[in-house]
Amino acid sequence: MTIAGAEYLLGGDIIFSVDGRPLNNVKELWALLQRLKVGDNIRLGVYREGKKSEVSLTITERPILPGDLPASEQPSLFQGWKRGTEYASRWIW
């Protein structure tokens, strides 16, 4: 399945091979995936809705998410506000 020419995985897809190599368990899948680098192309064999299918993907860089940062560096809802201002004092206890 593609969206604007780009293939993707769907929830419920079951991966059974990577680049034509059959997988016996999840550990094998993780071992293969950990060796991939940004820009690598892979073919995943998947079962989708009871049918075998193949999905070709290019590995892209994962965006940094707020939960990836240490607590001291996570954005705060009150960042930049000064205690004691009328508006901030309603929200900071």
What's this entry about, in short?
The chain has 93 residues and is an alpha+beta fold.
Keywords for this structure?
93 residues, alpha+beta, Pdz3 Domain, 2 helices, disordered N terminus, disordered C terminus
Number of H/I helices: 2
Strand content: 25-35%
CATH superfamily of one domain: PDZ domain
Overall 3D form: elongated
Low-pLDDT regions: 1-5, 87-93
Which percent range fits the helix content? 10-25%
- The appropriate CATH architecture of one domain is Roll
Report on this model:
Helix content is 14%, strand content 29%. The protein is α+β, with helices and mostly antiparallel strands and 93 residues long. It has a domain at 1-61: PDZ domain (Pdz3 Domain), CATH 2.30.42.10. A four-stranded antiparallel beta sheet has the order 4-3-5-6, with no helix packed on it. The chain has a two-stranded antiparallel sheet with strand order 1-2. A hairpin with a 2-residue loop joins β5 (41-48) and β6 (51-58).
Which helices and strands, and how do they pair?
Blueprint: E1 2-3, E2 6-7, E3 14-18, E4 21-22, H1 26-34, E5 41-48, E6 51-58, H2 86-89
Antiparallel strand pairs: 1-2, 3-4, 3-5, 5-6
